[in-house]
Amino acid sequence: MTDYNAITEAYFAAWNETDATARKALVEAAFTTGVSYRDPIMQGDGHDGIDALIAGVHGQFPGFRFKLKGKVDGFGDNIRFSWGLGPDGTEAVIEGSDFAIIKDGRLSIITGFLDKVPG
């Protein structure tokens, strides 16, 4: 049985890690080798591509953290969840929803949607 919550927790752990060395192991744990990520403003492929996206978000939004918004939903090898991005203890500045395909317990193809972005 697929543990959708654990998969989502691994995703957020990777996205929230600021130390590049520590993040490498988290990216490898959360994403398949051939991972593909797409949203309206960025895309990345493979572990190096995902790592570059995460580093870019930390560079643009220092001190911001991703947090689960609502509940994780999944069936079979499909998962969806919503998230907020902002400083700890404040309302999220950016919100989105991700839909993904799971392969061997890790995220393989992720499509992100931005639900709230600052003007």
From TrEMBL:
<dbReference type="InterPro" id="IPR032710">
    <property type="entry name" value="NTF2-like_dom_sf"/>
</dbReference>
<protein>
    <recommendedName>
        <fullName>SnoaL-like domain-containing protein</fullName>
    </recommendedName>
</protein>
<dbReference type="Pfam" id="PF12680">
    <property type="entry name" value="SnoaL_2"/>
</dbReference>
<dbReference type="InterPro" id="IPR037401">
    <property type="entry name" value="SnoaL-like"/>
</dbReference>
<feature type="domain" description="SnoaL-like">
    <location>
        <begin position="9"/>
        <end position="107"/>
    </location>
</feature>
